């Protein structure tokens, strides 16, 4: 019996534990999910929920003033963010994985997953991030159950063939350019990396980190979940 339960843990057959939370660390039902979200008490991975705010979050390809934004500008904005958080999080230990989601559904938009080499490094980062703000918004950080990102990532997206778009339930990982990857990850570059096609323009690092105090909180855009796709996992 115990063996059977172990074999179905975190799969569709498991009626108790939520497979989405288990594999991807995020589930659209959140705390209202009918299945259990077993929040780890320690993990090498942290989830910083909804942290990256893309400049075209209201309408893809258009900024808040209604002006079109080029793909290069969007990529540059993202890489600026990526480098900034990489450098901040590196203070707590060696980063194995830093993934930022390109998904659009509420529970995944702008999610940042950082996996450290050691659990205590993640714990130190979590302690330091709690109560802090980034770009005027509070940082929401938790331990995440995700340690195998191959299981959590949408392979079709990497092959540019995911027909679920931004509402896919698997991670659509935003890619950084080859130059920035080399700069940040150096020779320990992981194999099978897919590179962004646009040319990288590194701009200066923004001073978005804040340790507390009163800030204007920018609400996230809440999207309807109508197009949300259930997917067997
Ligand atoms: Zn769930
Ligand atoms: Zn997908």
UniProtKB/TrEMBL annotation:
Residues 44-146 form the RRM domain. InterPro entries: Nucleotide-bd_a/b_plait_sf, RBD_domain_sf, RRM_dom, RRM_euk-type, U2AF_small, Znf_CCCH. This is Uncharacterized protein. Keywords: DNA-binding, Metal-binding, mRNA processing, mRNA splicing, Nucleus, Repeat, RNA-binding, Zinc, Zinc-finger. One of its GO terms (cellular component) is U2AF complex. Belongs to the splicing factor SR family. Residues 12-40, 148-175 form the C3H1-type domain. GO terms for molecular function: DNA binding; RNA binding; zinc ion binding. A zinc finger (C3H1-type) spans 12-40, 148-175. Its main location: nucleus. Pfam families: RRM_1 (PF00076), zf-CCCH (PF00642). CDD domains: RRM_U2AF35B. GO terms for biological process: mRNA splicing, via spliceosome; photoperiodism, flowering. Necessary for the splicing of pre-mRNA. Probably active at the 3' splice sites. It is found in: Nucleus.
